[in-house]
């Protein structure tokens, strides 16, 4: 499965996630929180992109597709 990358701006999404966390009062300046915006973006992208995987597909097929999504991110 190939995912279209046109129109997907992970860097902009990460900036927005950082702004969101900061707006909630969660500083992203500490070493433990610096990667949080990227983790948020990758997790949400995986959830959104996972919709392309058929719910009734066999477990080994789902595993392969999920790995491809993770590799793409």
Characterization of this structure:
The structure is a single chain. It is built from 3 helices and no strands. It has 73 residues and is an all-alpha fold. The chain has one domain (10-72). Helix 1 crosses helix 2. The longest helix is centred in the N-terminal third of the chain and has 14 residues, at 10-23. It is elongated. The two termini are 14 Å apart.
Shape: elongated
What is the number of independent domains? 1
Specify the biggest β-sheet.
none
| Termini gap | 14 Å
Give the H and E element order.
HHH
Helix content: 55-70%
Compute the number of strand runs: 0
Strand portion:
under 5%
Helix segment tally: 3
Poorly predicted ranges: 1-5
Radius of gyration: 15 Å
Which structural class should the secondary elements be placed in? mainly alpha
Mean pLDDT over all positions: 78
């Amino acid at each position: 499965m190939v995912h279209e990358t046109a129109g997907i701006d992970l860097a902009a999404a990460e900036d927005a996630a950082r702004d969101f966390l900061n707006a909630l009062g969660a500083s992203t300046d500490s070493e433990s929180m610096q990667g949080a915006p990227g983790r948020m973006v990758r997790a949400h992208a995986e959830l959104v992109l996972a919709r392309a995987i058929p719910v009734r597909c066999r477990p080994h097929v789902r595993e392969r597709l999920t790995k491809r999504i993770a590799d793409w991110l």
